[in-house]
Design brief:
Distance between the termini: 61 Å
Largest sheet: 5 strands, mixed
Number of domains: 1
Strand order of the largest sheet: 1-2-10-7-3
Structural class: alpha+beta
Strand content: 5-15%
Oligomer: single chain
Number of strands: 14
Shape: globular
Helix content: 40-55%
Radius of gyration: 21 Å
CATH class: Mainly Alpha
CATH topology: Cytochrome p450
Length: 410
């Protein structure tokens, strides 16, 4: 059995103080295909999978490597696990297909294009609100607003509920950061509360049907001849809100950060906005915000030359693929001139297999539109201080990034 060459598990929170530990990952990947790592959770450890072929083998085989225990290294409490197993993220085929079919339509190309005008109005309003100030806290003033607005609009959630839902999303996803939650257990509680809030929202909507939005579609849909319960809707709602907001929030902040630190790349992008799609793919690769995804072995199986026991946690390190020299030339260089199609094929930012992110094209559209607006209206981008990373080994991003700028030519 091969073990980790470091003094602690790679996924120990202390290793993520300044974001994903890329150098440590590169060293581990160069030495091993798969590594056993001890941890403090019930199973006592997990297998860390580092190379793309092995990660793909795990993610394309849900019968052997199940999602039913969740994507996190931590073990969900049994009472919450039963609730979450109604969510797409926790379901394996064939049940996963029927749930995913309920939301896939909302992210088809034609449907995405139909909401462009709504999105552009919000994009403009976001920058309008800060453009005359000359500075902003980029994460909360800019990066969060478009994905939240899009998901609220899709699901028909009133804007006054922003004050409850946004802090709750942060508590659920960033429960290891004391600025958002007191403990992981507090995150579990917030997760159940968010599902309960959404179930209540569904109940009200059944009594008072509103416009033809995604909530209406979900509540009207049938699975095996029956409609979703309020609780089942609540679990889907939670997944959509979290998945639909975190990628844009974190990735847009990283893109601005990297452009400031690579002024030649910024100048190239300003001179040639046609490179925006390539810049989006490059930041999705270079600073992928979801570090890993977990599966659980449902039988004894061999993987990458190691014997994996039934019940073992198998953790696919997505961050490893995106900086692997076997997949990318000069992988540690931020380069917006890479072929975006090739980058998209090779990276694993949005996962792989049956659970590949259904909203990935919405995320790309969010990032594309916000980036173009920033380039068109904000010049002389500069950090007022170094950004503050949130404490997480699952998500990589900033909780604060104070930014200064000058008003661009409009």
């Amino acid at each position: 059995m091969t073990t980790c060459p470091f003094s602690s598990s790679l996924l120990h929170l202390d290793n993520f103080t300044h974001g994903t530990p890329r150098e440590a990952i590169a060293q581990l990947r160069a030495e091993q295909r798969i590594a056993w790592q001890e941890d403090e959770f019930a199973a006592g450890g997990h297998w860390l999978v580092l190379h793309k072929p092995d990660i793909d083998a795990v993610l394309r085989d849900p019968a052997t490597f199940s999602s039913s225990y969740g994507p996190l290294l931590e073990d969900f409490p049994e009472e919450l696990l039963a609730l979450q197993r109604q969510a797409m993220t926790f379901l394996d085929p064939p049940e996963h297909r029927s749930r995913r079919a309920l939301v896939d339509y909302a992210f088809r190309p034609g449907v995405l294009e139909a909401r462009r005008a709504m999105m552009q109005a919000k994009v403009s309003a976001i920058i309008d609100a800060i453009i005359d100030r000359g500075e902003c806290e980029f994460v909360s003033d800019v990066a969060m607003h478009l994905p939240i607005h899009v998901m609220f609009t899709l699901l028909g959630v009133p804007e006054e509920d922003y004050a409850y839902l946004v802090p709750t999303i942060n508590t659920v996803t960033l429960a290891n950061d004391p600025d958002y939650a007191g403990s992981r257990e507090e995150g579990w509680t917030a997760s159940a509360q968010m599902v309960g809030w959404a179930a209540s929202f569904a109940s009200k909507r059944r009594q008072q049907p509103a416009a033809n939005d995604m909530t209406n579609e979900l509540l009207s849909a049938e699975i095996d001849g029956r409609r979703l319960s309020d609780e089942e809707y609540g679990v889907i709602f939670q997944g959509l809100m979290i998945g639909g907001t975190e990628t844009t929030r974190n990735t847009l902040s990283w893109l601005v950060y990297e452009l400031i630190h690579h002024p030649r790349q910024l100048a190239l992008l300003q001179a040639n906005p046609d490179l925006v799609p390539a810049a989006v793919e490059e930041i999705l690769r270079y600073r992928n915000t979801v570090v890993y995804t977990r599966r659980t072995a449902m039988r004894d199986v061999e993987l990458a030359g190691e014997q994996i026991k039934q019940g073992s946690k198998v953790v696919c390190l997505l961050a490893s693929v995106n900086r692997d020299p076997a997949c990318f030339d000069n992988p540690d260089s931020f380069d917006i001139t890479r072929d975006p199609a090739q980058t998209r094929r090779q990276m694993r930012t949005f996962g792989f297999g049956v659970h590949v992110c259904p909203g990935q094209h919405q995320a790309r559209m969010n990032l594309d539109m916000m980036t173009r607006e920033i380039l068109a209206r904000m010049d002389d981008l500069r950090l007022l201080e170094e950004p503050t990373h949130f404490r997480s080994n699952f998500m990589d991003g900033f909780k604060r990034m104070p930014l200064a700028f000058t008003r661009g030519g409009e």
